[in-house]
Amino acid sequence: MTVIEVQNLRKAYGDTVAVQDVSFTVESGEIFGILGPNGAGKTTTVESIAGLRSADSGTIRVLGRDPSDTSLRYEVGVQLQESGLPDRLTVREALDLYATFYPEPADWRALTRELGLGEKLATAYGKLSGGQKQRLSIALALIGSPKIAILDELTTGLDPQARRDTWDLIESVRDSGVTIVLVTHFMAEAERLCDRIAVIDHGRVVALDTPAGLIAGLDTEQRIRFRPSAPVDDALLTARPEVREVIRHGSQIEVVGTGNLLHAVTSVLAVNEIIAADLRIEQASLDDAFVQLTGRSTKE
Ligand SMILES: Nc1ncnc2c1ncn2[C@@H]1O[C@H](COP(=O)(O)OP(=O)(O)OP(=O)(O)O)[C@@H](O)[C@H]1O
Per residue, what are the HEC states of 176-220? Predict the structure, then answer.
């Protein structure tokens, strides 16, 4: 079931066209990633979905309704880059306050424990570190038990352990049936969490696929090396369109090719009941896909 539909979205700020023409759909229960270089139009897109910006043209439907429909307030949780809470409000007060906005609030004690904020309940917002503010904003996005959670730069500012804990939390939130739209700069995050990813550049969707599909769509070369448990005829491998070349190194075989090469090689081996020992893969990453699609690195 489609829960979000964006069609030909366009939004300009004065002379700056932030979003030129963006279309995609998000299905119920998926983690949908929006990936793109700085200034690509990601935040403008998700803020339009959240009803915080009005589109210049195009249509958006969230759970079948216009984003401005106030009934969506209870069904869509939003975590944005800037939360803007008063500095003197404590973590507990913020959570208590937000919980009163919703008919069926989540158990915020459990949420804060999972987010590592359990010790900070009495701390004022202004005294939290950047990472703690970030975690509080995630808790506030989830406190209304939303059907859809929109998370913008979820783990920016978190240390590697906190980032991993947050990923686990997001996966458990998804497992409870929540659809998640995730804006991210981090390839590892996109690869680990997202079912599908829209790559946005200069206000347009330049690719939309699963992480594996984006990588397979690259025309870069990949190499797989292994030691087969029984002799393999080169022709079995070269018969696959993904395989360009088979090179022998003594008892080792190196297969060079493109697309979903690993799948091609392992299926040939499986059909012939051959086991690959010492398997090593030099495969393209989502990072490579990103660079090829946008001409830029995410680290810029
Ligand atoms: N309120 C605003 N007023 C004027 N220009 C804006 C405003 N918000 C965004 N922009 C511009 O619109 C373009 C897209 O911005 P947006 O924040 O949507 O991109 P983004 O992909 O989320 O970027 P980042 O990854 O840096 O957050 C940028 O050129 C930005 O400077």
Answer: CCCEEEEEECCHHHHHHHCCEEEEEECCEEEEEECHHHHHHCCCC
Q: Which residue minimizes the CA distance to atom 18 of ligand 1?
A: 41
Q: What confidence tens digit (pLDDT) does each residue in 22-76 have? A: 999 999 999 999 999 889 999 999 999 999 999 999 999 999 999 999 999 889 9
ipTM at complex level: 0.95
| Domains located in the chain, CATH noted | 2-215 (3.40.50.300), 221-283 (3.30.70)
Nearest CA to ligand 1 atom 24: 38
Ligand 1 mutation target, pool 42, 183, 199, 299, most atoms within 8 A of CB: 42
Tell me what the mean pLDDT of segment 149-163 comes to. 84
Q: Is the CB of 42 under 6 A from ligand 1?
A: yes
Q: Is the CB of 36 under 6 A from ligand 1?
A: yes
Give pTM, 2 decimals: 0.80
CB 151 within 8 A of CB 113: no
Q: Say which DSSP state 123 is in.
A: S
Dist. CA 58 → ligand 1 center (Å): 18
